[in-house]
Write a structure and sequence with these properties.
The protein is α+β, with helices and mostly antiparallel strands and 407 residues long. Helices cover 26% and strands 10% of the residues. The strands form four sheets. Strands 1, 2, 3, 4, 5 and 6 form a six-stranded antiparallel β-sheet that branches. The chain has a two-stranded antiparallel ribbon with strand order 7-8. Strands 9-10 form a two-stranded antiparallel sheet. Strand 2 and strand 3 form a beta hairpin.
Amino acid sequence: MKRLPLIIGAIFTLTIVIVIITTIKLEHKDVPEGEFKTMVDATYVGSSECKKCHERKFLEWTTTLHSKMMQDAKANPMAIIGDFDSLSEIRTFKKEDVDFTLGNQWKQQYLKKTEDDYVVLPAQYNISSGQWTLYQAEDWQDKSWFKECAGCHATGVDPEKKTFKEPGIGCEACHGPGSNHVKAIPGYEIATIVDPQRLTTNAAAQICGSCHSRGMDKSGQYQYPANYMTSRGVANLRIFFNHANQEENKDMFWPSGDSKYNNMQYLDWQNSEHAKAGVSCTSCHTIHVSQSTFQTKLQGDKLCRSCHQTMENRGAHKLHTFGSCIACHMPRTGKSAEAGDIRSHTFSFIYPELSIEMGGLEKQPNSCSDCHHHKDNLIEGLVEFLDAAKKADMPKPYAVHRRKALK
């Protein structure tokens, strides 16, 4: 029994010696498996590389409009949905001339390779009406797709080399180039890729805004923020891009400040109460799954009322118990293929008085006439109905509460 402590001590000492010798003999690795800790100097690898680890997200993404923004017509002729069988005086090209398609919900345009560049062919197919309309002017052959459009139609665009990694809005269009992420040191997976859900509201919205806006990059060469694309979510979009604004680009905006055309939702949103409150694009829209026409998380009023739960059936709101929030607060002020197929994203009610003051609906649409556009629905009458509804639920004197459309 007296020797037991000595035996235990000897065993313990021997164990320590063995551990030390084994550790010394083991090959020491300074760097674990992987190479990168940051996104610096990362390059594009393509969505198919992302699929290896994120298969479900990849397959869900293939159902979205983003994935079909630009498709290879030679590899998949069924991507061409325009009616090339019917005669058209507007369409002056053949299906065989199409190398890539652009768009697949409101309209479809067609891209043709010319030497080291691409050009958008001069007619587009409006899907809802089934009509061909003129898209480009007579000088369409002199325009460069890489200067005017490429950054928002393809992923991994290099406008100087006139190349792109893949057609369409792929994974890396929003998450940034993924080469470093693919070879990330274990534990640094998050730091080597952009995750919009981990960003501030403004930084995440800028990723969407890099394409859903209009303007010119700081160099004056490209109609998209070419130098921001590889740094989406990291850099500040304002530094790289001059957004269109109502003061300098009056032809793009209505007097109310709402946008006239498609791809301007970010500019509308910036002027909205939603932006001030931190309600961003992904608060309403899904990214990886197409659940509705506009990829919203819920349909119609259900989406609005998921936040606006205390809305009372008073004033103007009691006029339309059968209607929808977006009919009044997101009127169809913009045009993609057909007039009015794009809704405003300022989320502001446009008063019919403003149409009167601006000289008619052609010069300023409003929320009421968006639905009440019959010849017998005079704008003055709509103003009176709206005033009566508000006045009924407002204390005296009513004139104090009356909101003016113009200040």
